[in-house]
Design goal:
Helix 1 runs parallel beside helix 4 (about 55-85) and helix 5 (about 105-115) packs across helix 10. This protein has 2 domains: about 1-85; about 105-345, 2-Layer Sandwich (BirA Bifunctional Protein, domain 2), CATH 3.30.930. The protein has helices spanning about 1-15, 20-30, 35-45, 55-85, 105-115, 130-135, 175-185, 225-240, 290-295, 315-320, 335-340, and strands at about 120-125, 130, 155, 165-170, 190-195, 210-220, 245-250, 255-265, 280-290, 305-315. With about 350 residues, it is α+β, with helices and mostly antiparallel strands. Helices cover about 40% and strands about 20% of the residues. Strand 7 (about 245-250) and strand 8 form a beta hairpin. The longest helix has about 35 residues, at about 55-85. A 7-stranded mixed beta sheet has the order 1-5-6-10-9-8-7, sandwiched between helices. Tetramer of two alpha and two beta subunits. Belongs to the class-II aminoacyl-tRNA synthetase family. Phe-tRNA synthetase alpha subunit type 1 subfamily. It catalyses: tRNA(Phe) + L-phenylalanine + ATP = L-phenylalanyl-tRNA(Phe) + AMP + diphosphate + H(+). Pfam families: Phe_tRNA-synt_N (PF02912), tRNA-synt_2d (PF01409).
Length: about 350
């Protein structure tokens, strides 16, 4: 008797249909709830003769499993139908779509690239995991230069017999310049944006990684005057047409002569304020004429060609442009900070 009832319910369960979620719920209540048909069968199980309990028990379990699977399938089907119906309802008010924005470092990097691209510079790229040959040796760094120490640079592996084969995280994008000069004959006019790494304590003013944009121009009869005019044009495009620049003598292993470039403070107009430490000037980059040793190291005849190079930190430019007080904010992924740049994108 109970087996006949189970078989009857199996036929009903296999033929179940539903047009919407409400009908699916009614079927679940009819068969699987505490007062449902399958629960009633399980309550009658105690009256089954002992020699039939195994067979009946297996059939009840099969019925319950099939019913559960069928109801789950109907639930999925009705949700899909309802979803499809919503998608084709052209009168429905659309859901608001939250649009993101570019990271402030990306905004500034793209602006720098755009300015120099309009002056004829092309993009060049290279690996972030580099060898000493391209990071230091080709750039005229002395064998005992502090940058080659573990406390200043992240080394991945070190070669016991040949320092040029040491593997490290590049400390500047000058390695890209070295690779381009090795494989390209002048004229060369490139900018090299990218992430660089230095073994420094993380503070509001420094980080163990940051971003650079470096530039290189090599050709015949290139002079410091050419460099000054390019940098003046860049400063005025980036910070405003009234921006002034000044070049102070400095030292870099890869340029000679070398200079640090300051811009007139765009907050106080050069009058002096807290932002520029009451000097009227703010430092933004380093530059100079490419050292002849660098040209020779990279296979370029320094008696025929000359060139200039410059490099700037993107975080530094972004700090100046948007007055961000803490470098760590650029890498903490705080959406409240990022939302402040929606209008700048």
């Amino acid at each position: 008797m109970i087996l006949d009832k189970i078989n009857q319910l199996l036929d009903e369960v296999r033929q179940m249909t539903a047009a919407n979620a409400e009908e699916v719920e009614q079927l679940r209540l009819k068969y699987l709830s505490k007062k449902g048909a399958i629960t009633a069968l399980m309550n009658d199980f105690r009256n089954v003769p002992a020699n039939q309990k195994k067979t009946v028990g297996m059939k009840i379990n099969e019925l319950k499993q099939i019913a559960q699977e069928r109801i789950n399938q109907l639930k999925t089907d009705t949700e899909t139908v309802e979803c499809d119906a919503q998608h084709i309802d052209l009168t429905r008010t659309p859901y608001p779509i939250g649009l993101g924005t570019r990271h402030p470092l990306t905004i500034v990097t793209n602006e720098i690239i755009d300015i120099f691209s309009r002056m004829g510079f092309v993009l060049a790229d290279g690996p972030e995991v580099e060898d000493d040959l391209h990071v230091f040796t080709r750039m005229n760094f002395a064998a005992d230069h502090p940058a080659r120490d573990m406390q200043d640079t992240f080394f991945v592996s070190q070669h016991p017999n040949d320092v040029t084969k040491n593997i490290l995280l590049r400390s500047h994008t000058s390695s890209v310049q070295a690779r381009v000069m090795e494989t390209t004959q002048p004229p060369i006019r490139i900018i090299c944006p990218g992430r660089v790494y230095r073994n420094e304590a993380i503070t509001a003013r420094a980080h163990c990684f940051f971003h650079q944009v470096e530039g290189l121009y090599i050709d015949k009869n290139v002079s410091f005057t050419d460099l000054k005019q390019v940098l003046l044009s860049f400063a005025r495009e980036m910070f405003g047409a009234d921006t002034k620049i000044r070049l102070r003598p400095s030292y870099f292993p890869f340029t000679e002569p070398s200079a640090e470039m300051d811009i007139s403070c765009f907050i106080c107009g050069g009058e002096g304020c807290g932002f520029c430490k009451h000097t009227g000037w703010v430092e933004i980059l380093g530059c100079g004429m490419v050292d002849p040793n660098v040209l020779e190291q990279c296979g370029i005849d320094s008696s025929v060609y000359s060139g200039y190079a410059f490099g700037m930190g993107v975080e530094r430019i972004t700090n100046l442009k948007y007055q961000v007080s803490d470098l760590r904010m650029f890498s903490e992924n705080d959406v409240r900070f990022l939302h402040e740049f929606e209008s700048a994108d």
